[in-house]
Predict the 3D structure of the following.
Amino acid sequence: MLLSRYFFKTFKEVPGDAELKSHQLLVKGGYIKQVGTGIFSYFPVAYRSLKKIEAIIRQEMDGIDGYEVNLPVAMPASLWSETGRYEAIGSEMVRFDDRAGRKMVLGMTHEEAVTDLARYVINSYKQLPVMLYQIQTKFRDEPRSRGGLIRVREFVMKDAYSFHASLEDLDAYYEKVHAAYHRIYKRCGLDVISVASDVGMMGGTGAHEFMAVTESGEDTLIVCDSCGYQANREVAQAKRTYEKDPPEAMKEVATPGMKSIEDVAEFLGVEPEDTLKAVMYTAGKKLVLCVIRGDLEINEIKLKNYLGVKDLVFAQDDEIINAGMVPGFASPVGLKDVRIIVDESAAESTNLVAGGNKKDVHIKNVNFGRDYTSTEVVDISTVKEGEACPECGKPLTITRGIEVGNIFKLGTKYSKVMKAVFLNENGKAEDLIMGCYGIGVGRLFASVVEVQKETNRIIWPISIAPFEVELIGLALEKDAKVKEAAFETYRKLKDNGFEVLFDDRKFSPGFKFKDADLLGAPLRVTIGDRSLKNGGAEVQIGTEEKIIISLDDLIPELKKAREQLFKELDS
């Protein structure tokens, strides 16, 4: 393909909000153009890569016996009302009325649509298991669009849904998908880790996220380098040991103006882990007091999951006062008719300093079970750097990552309410058991750029590169010998099956090289007067040193290089 005729343009300026490297490079390289907040157009150079990613995904989904379908983008609200999600999901779902006044939605996910399809076809255990997948446009009115393609409103996603007769069968298939996902990312040149994660609005009994590790990621990951434990901070746990001293008598102490844990600990000469933190929330229009050890933070995802609510709001001062507490000096001691949720750290620690429910007063030696109690002792804490791994006890490490895919064990969350059933071996009706598996195609594409070490150029993995080879001809209009050699090389590359982009434009070498850095072909071939004098074409493979290869040997050597690059992705 001739670059002089290609629909292509690079840019010097990037949007002011382009904080991520991938956003900057994809705009500068002429891959994407923002049309609206979180909405992008894709240029041909990007679309070529995206189609290659989709092809890899299709191969792997077909390899685990998936059947590709196509589900609607616009759906009747009545379908979503069957599961209650039409009413439960907030403004991130786009709702509209059609010309007949019927309530409609734009698909942000497709559990309802695929379950409707399954109940239409599946009626016997003999048809199970089965997996359906699609690569489809979705729209989520994301309030925090950021990072170019990392967090958008309109996006293309591969989502797959499996149907099973038993939980054991779901578990076995879940592992097949897990392995297929690792192959997909490896083939796309992206190293990922899979971490246990929160099921979120998808529901179900278990979930994993696939993370591209990078400091620019928006997810916090807790990992153990010793045993391989990996979890999103939303669900991560730590192994904590507690030295229980004999309970001592409670004692009120004056703490004038000391409201924060740090101030109280310093004033009383104790460590933050010797204190008790009390935080009151409004959850589902009801007040809840959460108690945790002072050096730890409440993990609101864990808390929301335990309470079964979508939102948590800090209680107002008047609500705290009406519940019998004093803002800044709140305590579970002496409370009545207040729901108290106690983190394990608070329940297992002894002789803690807690608020006195009086202004400028704290209480020493507060102990769970004696001075306050609750039947709700659960893990609602956030894991800290260096805490002990729950599996091997070695120190945990905190890192960051970009979520590039997720898998869920949905169970019967959707099939039960939508009456998607099958007849088992005894002729008895049972609810279909489901799994769900998603990959954001555009996010994967951008993440490959985000995690690479290069900061001012792109080097695509050969499997998803828009073009395998970029051929650069220098001063073609001035040197007939160079022009003849470059065009002949271009012809040979095409004849030998290479995907080649030939920069035949009448621009300076510096201009062409800057564009080549953004186009990111893993094999770069430059032909000019200097290279011919040195014996042939100048070749660069990825970030390796440039070498001169004779024109006679060029095609065989490039074939070897291409084969090696593919082999490295499969290893």
